[in-house]
Amino acid sequence: MKQINYKVIDKGTYYRKGVFRHFTEDCKCSTSITSRIDVTELAAYSRNTGTKFYINFLFILSKAMNSREDYRMGYLWQTDELICYDVINPTQYVFHEDTETCTPVYTEYDEDYEKFYNAALRDVEEAKKTREYGLDTTNHPNWFDASYISWLSYDSLHLELPDGYLYFAPIINWGKYREENGRLVMPVTVRLNHAIADGYLVANVFRLLEQEIRCFVGL
Question: 195: which of 3, 23, 85, 168 fits an S-S bond (Cβ 3.0–4.6 Å)?
Answer without folding.
Answer: 23
